[in-house]
Amino acid sequence: ALGEKLQKTFRNLRGRGKLSESNISQAMREIRLALLEADVNFRVARDFVATTQAKCIGQEVLNSITPGQQVVKIVHDELIALMSGEGKDQALNLPGGMATVLMVGLHGSGKTTTTGKLAKRLIAEGRKPMLVACDVYRPAAIDQLETLGQEVGAPVYSDRATQDVVAIAAAARKVALQQECNVLLVDTAGRLHIDDELIDELVRLRDKLKPHEILLVADAATGQEAVSIAERFDKALGVTGVVLTRLDGDARGGAALSMRAVTGKPIKLVGVGEKLDALDVFHPDRLVSRLLG
Amino acid sequence: LLGKPGRLTDADIEDLEEVLIGADFGVGLTFRLIEQIRSVEKAGSGGDWMAAARSVVLEELGPKPQMPTMQATPTVVFLVGVNGAGKTTTAAKLAWRYKNEGKAVLLAACDTFRAGAIEQLRVWRERLGISMVEGAYRADPASVLFEAIAKAREERSDMLIVDTAGRLHTKRNLMAELEKMVRVAGRAVPGAPHHTWLVLDANTGGNAIQQARQFHQSLGLTGLIVTKMDGTSKGGALVSIQKELGLPVLWIGLGEAFEDLEAFDPQQFAEALFP
Ligand SMILES: Nc1nc2c(ncn2[C@@H]2O[C@H](COP(=O)(O)OP(=O)(O)OP(=O)(O)O)[C@@H](O)[C@H]2O)c(=O)[nH]1
Ligand SMILES: Nc1nc2c(ncn2[C@@H]2O[C@H](COP(=O)(O)OP(=O)(O)OP(=O)(O)O)[C@@H](O)[C@H]2O)c(=O)[nH]1
Ligand SMILES: [Mg+2]
Ligand SMILES: [Mg+2]
Q: Rounded to a whole number, what is the distance in angstroms from the first to the last CA of chain B?
């Protein structure tokens, strides 16, 4: 793990003096490599290390811990600070009345399943969600969402006769109001961040719905492109948060750091399994221990 | 970044690192390849280092793999992989390709777990106009497989394509379920499954190698399919997997329609990285 690697690099530094650029350069290299091995994006890792280095330089070498431990603590604290959202931003902001959530992301990232999970959670919290089937492309996407709706006990709005997702969403809202639902959970089709036409579809959907939350659903195992993916969705739509899925696997989760660093948006929720109860609040400290291995 | 002729500078090395790491090659392989690129470039006649990089990656990948043989009747193909990788869509693409080559293809809907999974493959099989064997929702996938093999025999299918449920390689019980399906296939048809292909999402980082290791250890994979190569991810993890496990990359997925499946071409892969 990173801690042991850093112990080695500081073997020559005694318990006195200051952390300087020269005596920590090898440590910074180890940190950058550790982050890259955890799938943190190349530039994000480089920038993070530069910031961390600046925090380290000039610090007195404490007597109570080794310099290696001291640097690890600084890295750890920097990562926690980066991954922690600011206060109320960390949770879902769903005001009373009709709250709307738009789920977006790449193909197969877990949007439909997360929509079902979120419905289950909201019902347990006493809200009345309606699921909206705005994936009009994927074979049996509507069937999938309808099955999930039945499983959690939430109504599903769908219209197999049209491919106009904006019209579907508008109609869904009307029906939701009539049925006294108070949350609209809108599932959308997977799409490439470089597909301008489909990104534009999301922009039109957003403009119609004016959602309170636009959640980028992303696989925890995403590699280096996490940056360009998050940036594109965020610039086009104004993402309000990220849902990291399949965190029940053994992916290190560097993509989370990359997405947070580049968009400034918080990780709000994590998917930790295939069942509909497998949705957790994001814990920055758990992700950081996972990253530092 | 583009082809500066002559010796590699520190800035070039940084650029190379960014390209290779950025393509999800992973840290270890990146550093090893950069060393090789340096020596190729030193030995070269001062051509641009892009060409050296291309040749090193091609060396690493080896020649374009042989097309898989479909000799047995039925030839049984398993598609396995983690959740959302593209197995079901790839099953449809493969069925389309082989049907167009004149093969009698049968589909087995062995994802009996996920919501809408059977319905999804039903839509594809209707578009294809081929038969499919499905079981009840939440039936034992091994029993659906058994029925599918029986049907393949009865219909004299050339090929049986088995779609399985997505599963994380870390879930022991789910991997055991697949291991059981391999045994069931082997007892029903000698040598089956003849092909066990891991479907990998090109957007996956280092975890792809872990996925491949575990699936290979459990099942004995015979090849890889890398999907979503129409996105911006380069799928560099496939190089490490091929190197470490000796598994050929057979197909790449380039979209969501039938025809969006191509045989893997190492030359194109290397050129996409270093144009
Ligand atoms: N293990 C695990 N599997 C998950 C999780 N979230 C979703 N999945 C699985 O991932 C696969 C893809 O999930 P979907 O919800 O269909 O993904 P999607 O983003 O809606 O896919 P598209 O609509 O095709 O873009 C399914 O097999 C889900 O069961 C999770 O947190 N953990
Ligand atoms: N752009 C693109 N999308 C793809 C490709 N292959 C699959 N997809 C999409 O990825 C999503 C998931 O595909 P599926 O075939 O359902 O994946 P799966 O592995 O069967 O998923 P599970 O059964 O839930 O584990 C769908 O939206 C597909 O259309 C590809 O090569 N390119
Ligand atoms: Mg979906
Ligand atoms: Mg599937």
A: 11
Asked if B203 and A225 come within 8 Å (Cβ–Cβ), the reply is: yes
- For the stretch B42-68, pLDDT in tens is 776 556 788 899 999 999 999 999 999
CA dihedral B260, B261, B263, B265 (to 10 degrees): 50
Q: What is the pLDDT of residue A244?
A: 98
What is the average pLDDT across A237-258?
Answer: 98
**Other C-beta atoms within 10 Å of A29: how many?**
13
Using alpha carbons, select from B219, B222, B274, B206 the residue that is nearest to residue B26: B206
Q: If you ran DSSP here, which 8-state letter would residue A184 be given?
A: E
Phi, psi of A219 (to 5 degrees): -70, 130
Tell me if chain A has a CB within 8 Å of the CB of B172.
no
Q: What residues sit around ligand 3, an ion, with C-beta below 5 angstroms? A: A 111-112
Q: Which residues of B touch A145 (CB under 8 A)?
A: 116
| CB contact burial B72-95 (16+ within 10 A = b; e otherwise) | bebbbbbbbbbbbbbbbbbbbbbb
Instruction: Give the pLDDT confidence of B199-255 residue by residue, as tens digits.
Output: 999 999 999 999 999 999 999 999 999 999 999 999 999 999 999 999 999 999 999
Tell which atom from ligand 2 comes closest to the C-alpha of B117: 23
B249 with B242: CB under 8 angstroms? yes
For the CA atoms of A47, A241, A280, A275, what is the dihedral angle to 10 degrees?
A: -110
Cα(A166) to centroid(ligand 2), Å:
24
Q: Exposed (0-12), middle (13-18) or buried (19+): which is A146, by Cβ within 10 Å? A: buried
B37, containing H or E segment = helix B27-43
Closest approach of A135 to chain B, Cα-based (Å): 13
**Positive/negative CA dihedral, B163, B166, B172, B173:** negative
Start-end of H helices in chain A = 2-9, 21-37, 42-56, 67-83, 111-124, 141-152, 165-178, 196-209, 226-237, 254-263, 284-292
Two structure tokens written together for B234 = 């380069």
Distance CA(A158)–CA(A268), nearest Å, equals 27
Residue B148, both tokens: 């599918």
- Strand pairing report for B249-253 and B261-263: antiparallel
- CB atoms closer than 10 angstroms to residue A88: 8
- Under 8 Å between Cβ of B85 and B199: yes
pLDDT of residue B47: 61
Chain A contact for B84, CB < 8 A? Answer: yes
Write out the two tokens for B264. Answer: 């893997």
B201 touches chain A (CB under 8 A): yes
Supply A61's token pair. 């070498």
- Residue B143 and residue B59 in contact, taking contact as beta carbons nearer than 8 Å: no
